[in-house]
Amino acid sequence: MQRPSPLNVHTIQNYLGARSLGRRIDLHERLESTNREAVALGQAGVEHGTLVLADAQTAGRGRMARSWFSPSGVNLYGSLVIRITIDAPRLSAWLSWLPLMAALGAAEAIDIVSGVPIAVKWPNDLLINERKVGGILCESGASAGAGPFQVIGIGINLNGIPEDFPDELRHIATTLRHETGTFIDRNRLAAQLLIELESCLEEFLSCGSEFIALAYRRRCTTIGKTVKAVLADGKEYIGVADAIEQDGSLTLVEPSVGTSPPTVRQLRAADIVHLR
Predict the structure, then answer these.
(1) DSSP 3-state assignment of 252?
(2) Tens digits of per-residue pLDDT, 210-221?
(3) Structure pTM?
């Protein structure tokens, strides 16, 4: 019977060739959180492109302080340290687009390796038929000697089955194995993920967000849907997701009340629930 291949640093790097992302890969059998480890490495001055991988996480983290279900031996849990000097006028756009670029790169990588079309729910949830197959958590930090850095954390459900999930996740999550009927090579996907992320970062650095935005909008299934947006402070808004703006923000149009015109909000961060 086919089994998931074990993660292997040399195999991943052989797929990569001469690229800046993944020149250093720290592989762990078990971590509390790959993001936590990557942030610590970033604060210690680790080089750009360092990837932290774990076969399992005991306290994996998602957006909005959620936990990330991280069983051993079946999925991909990784965090990438990005240390690129960005001019002050472009820094805001860089930080806004980084989570969206991560989602775009991850979706492209999954498509290439598995053949499964991946949609993105703004800002960076990865979906198959409205079920979550992957998520992204970006964090920023600084080190005294090496300056600022960002961490891109990515979790992708690969080779498990729906019955593995806790009850509260079974109706909203899925795995690539469940969708395709085959096991996914974790080493190949890890390498392809780094390749696609590097391509996105290089595109943004050389040309800005124009083409990144076009590619992201093609993937984004949130546009045009009625959604509930939940902000970090607990406030909730319901409206139509009208557009992804050039700065990566989501335009939400709330319905008019009485004779009042519709309310238009620009959201830079929120938890989005697709209603219809």
Answers:
(1) strand
(2) 999 999 999 999
(3) 0.93
